[in-house]
Amino acid sequence: MWNRPEPLAAEPKAEQKQAVKANVTQSVDLFYEPPPAFTIVTASLEWVWGQMDKGDAAAAETLFLKNAGTTEEQRGQIAQQLVQNFRRFDPRVLARIVLSLPRGQTADMVLNELISEWSRYDSEEVLHFLETLPADRVNNVVLVRAAFGLARLPAERVTTFAATLDDDGRSYLAEGLVESANQAGSWRNTSAILSKMNAQGHKDAVSVEWTLGVSLSDIAPEEIERRITAETDPVKRDQLLAGHAWVAGISDSERGISLDAQIQSPQVRDDYLVRHAGDWLETDRNATLAWLQSAGAKQLMSLEMRAKLLKAYGLEAAP
Amino acid sequence: MKWGLQLLLHVAAAFAGFWLASSQPPMAHSPPVAAKKAAVVAKTQTSPPPPMPARSLSRTERLGPRLTPQRWPEVHMVIEKADIGELPAMLQVILGSRYPDVRRRAVELLFMRWTELDRDAALAAMKTITSPQLKEMALDRILFEWAKSDATAAWQWVTAIEDDSVLQESGIEELLANGAEKDPQGYAAWAAQIEDPFLRYKALDQIASTWGRADPKGAFAAALEMNDPVLRKRVLEVVCYQEKSGIDRAKAMDLILQLPDKAARIELLSDDWIRAFANDKPEAALHWLVSHANNPDLQKVSGTLGGVLGEKVKNVVELRAMALQVPAGVLREAFSAEAAWRRAASGGSVQEARELLTLCGPCIEREFALDVIEESATKP
Questions:
Q1: Fewer Cβ close by (within 10 Å): the C or N end of chain A?
Q2: Do B269 and B134 fall into the same domain?
Q3: What number is the ipTM of this complex?
């Protein structure tokens, strides 16, 4: 079972903490009211805001833990609402609330949301939280979302944490770090983390190379093409290329198709070709229909794939 | 002056051994005395955190209990009047606050005050913060104030940071956010030479945002002439959403249609410009599409317009009449298919959506619309 995270480094000094605590205790004693019986989530939240206005800093936790008669579903809804208002609450209180939910889809969803919000506000605290989170709660989504915050921390701190994960965990964390690279932290820091982290890749995790291809395709297409040319590992090269092709094809289907054609993995190549030919049909129908019936398309796409697209126009694909 | 400036910056950067030595960003202000600058930079980089002076317990203690969302206005008043000697203790109290938003806003306010009173001490205190986000927030406030009086020195300080690339990039973004509008083309030329692709993009993105907001018309005109597709796209995206920009959307879209890159013009028109136009002036947006119906690039744009109107126009008879104004063929089919599925997916009548779809012949857009409409029909 989860325990409260270690006190944070930035906690107030003892005498300051005492002053704050005394004030809160006094306020709670003065204004304490038991939470009302549950009717709807918004009414519960209104009660929390009202109590907080009166100085009751523990209102959210009181509501959650002492509101007798609420169903599991209602508790899930309340937790969701509290996390959506993350910035107005103590994250450690929210963490206790979220982790007290019975395991299931709602609990996981709320935990993921908490991690996302917390990562935006304080990477240090998120790392402390992750370090104390039970291993079975540190899943792929948690790691990918936490990466947005962890990308800002010194490389040694993140790699020390990464060393406590298994290969799959490190793969997911690496995926998240690269995904965040154009929004959070710095590429210099992210590269330093990745180089020390030794993420091996996992079949269900998106590879660092694919994610890098996706990120760079939009913001620096020349850079990704240079990297693809320079990459000597055929698997990594194919993944860089696939990420680049995927994004390039969203805005420029013809360009996407020409990149798809170079992908070595047959399944990825076929999936991307169908996707980009479909996108092209929505952008320039006449040109795409002509291409789908051309010798060039016959070389790249199977009869079945072309037939599926042409059928939507009442046309048949020639073998 | 520029050569002198470059020389100064090369010397300073060589001294610091920093990576940006070869190309400094353009400066908004002329540099003051070089030696004084170097001394300031050296001092701020090596100063230990300020010793904790004897603080005024009363004001700091008054601050702690007020650090809640409900008592924010009182926090504002306490920090605004703080003396320099009280600030270190106040920082510790603020960092211990349990509410993330209050903590962030209080740090912002505290460092604004600190910079007013003693910038070097503020810089040293900022470096002691362990949370990266709060440290960035503190630096942002310092730079915001510093750049008002001496942007050159502020840039020098940021580009000389050696031990924290995350903080440095945040500082660069802040300085661009508060200065790029003074010489956007100069800053863009500087940013284009940054080797790190992610930092280059962040810099270009910030320049586009600052420029597009400060001078939408000028930024729009310049963007049409740009060779850098990344900066051009970002500027045109930012400008598109500026209210009261004074830009005539129809004329702007005519100009975008003339961009040399077909994929770029379709993406800009479809993802941003026709969408914003339709939300603002639906009839005018439809008129623009109809008057350009002979242009072969507008299939996707027509679909986007149909989608916006499918959600926006409440009367289905009116919506159908709009669809019929679009010339028959590819454009009308794209328009009516997207109008139909968007209407169904946004909670509109499934029957109305099906009727709209009768305006669309066999095509991939129709197949997709049918799937969405039938899925919507199964929902309660």
A1: N
A2: no
A3: 0.82
